[in-house]
Design goal:
Order of helices and strands: HEHEHEHEHEHEEHEHHHHHH
CATH topology of the largest domain: Rossmann fold
Largest sheet: 8 strands, mixed
Strand order of the largest sheet: 3-2-1-4-5-6-7-8
Shape: elongated
CATH superfamily of the largest domain: NAD(P)-binding Rossmann-like Domain
CATH architecture of the largest domain: 3-Layer(aba) Sandwich
Strand content: 5-15%
Distance between the termini: 41 Å
Structural class: alpha/beta
Helix content: 40-55%
Radius of gyration: 21 Å
CATH class of the largest domain: Alpha Beta
């Protein structure tokens, strides 16, 4: 995306009042990203029954303990509470939503938009978001799904807000959120596990702990950066760094002989099915 287009996107948020319900780490990350992109702190408000001192310490934004206080005059309300308490929070807000409802953005994992619609009201515009933990360092990957009541302008606002902490993709089918959960939602843990086992293997090969750690982390970062900056797919990139008869080929053979693809198929299917089960349980409230 060119800089001119990006500037226009941020300009569209300049006069928007954005409220956060829940003052946890994701709220901290989003506020930091918004402020870094020129949004005025006066446009941002946070409500949390137990507000984190970190919010007030890091950012000069209004902090409230009553969710209704940040609902008033809001253009966007970001629901950033734990999934288990979101039904209660949503139902309590429903009676106080103005006739012209603000856009609600939910980042609560597993809560389907149909359930949010039932709790908040049929005419309330809702966007469901599945972010991931690298959003905490502005390197997140977020999947977005918009309900029928969401306007094109509100979709653009949502995308701009979430781009403050990384990249975004839109889904046309909400059912794909379970696959997204299995891929990018749970995905950081898969890569941490791979880094963990590579580091342990390096120790067994005789490398000192600090060198093993640093080389593992930089290799993971470098590979991801190469993939992001290349137009080639992962299979092509792998082939390019796998010389015939070389050391990499020997290692790849071992991984393929142990059917790494099947292991990941099973792991991600298990994550997807668990996501579906949790969504069903959370929606039955």
């Amino acid at each position: 995306m060119n800089n001119a287009h990006t500037q226009l996107e941020w300009k569209s948020l300049q006069n928007s009042r954005i409220s956060f319900i829940g003052g946890g780490n994701m709220t901290l990350s989003l506020i930091g990203g918004l402020l870094n992109n020129g949004i005025d702190a006066a446009q941002l408000r946070v409500a949390d029954v137990n507000p984190q001192p970190l919010v007030a310490a890091h950012f000069p934004v209004e902090i409230h303990t009553d969710n209704r206080e940040v609902l008033e005059h809001a253009d966007v309300v970001v629901l950033a509470v734990k999934p288990q308490v979101l039904p209660e929070v949503s139902k309590a807000l429903a009676a106080h939503i103005p006739h012209t409802a603000p856009l609600f953005i939910s980042i609560a994992a597993g809560i389907q938009s149909t359930d949010l619609q039932r709790w908040l009201g049929a005419q309330v515009p809702i966007v469901r978001v599945m972010p991931n933990t690298p959003a905490l360092v502005q390197s997140g990957a977020s999947a977005l799904f918009a309900g029928a009541q969401v306007s094109a302008e509100q979709k653009a606002m949502t995308e701009t807000i979430l781009r403050a902490v990384g990249m975004t993709v839109w889904l046309d089918d909400e059912q794909l959120m379970d696959a997204v959960t299995a891929l990018s939602g749970s995905g950081p843990a898969y890569f941490f596990l791979i880094m963990e086992v590579m580091e342990q293997a390096a120790l067994k090969l005789g490398l000192p702990a600090e060198q093993a750690r640093l080389l593992t982390l930089q290799t993971a970062f470098g590979a991801a950066k190469m993939a992001l900056e290349s137009r080639e797919d992962a299979a092509t990139l792998r082939a390019r760094v796998t010389s015939k008869g070389g050391t990499t080929e020997e290692a790849i053979k071992v991984l393929q002989e142990h059917d790494l693809q099947s292991i990941f198929d099973q792991a991600m299917t298990a994550a997807q099915q668990r996501s579906m089960a949790l969504a069903k349980d959370l929606g039955e409230v």
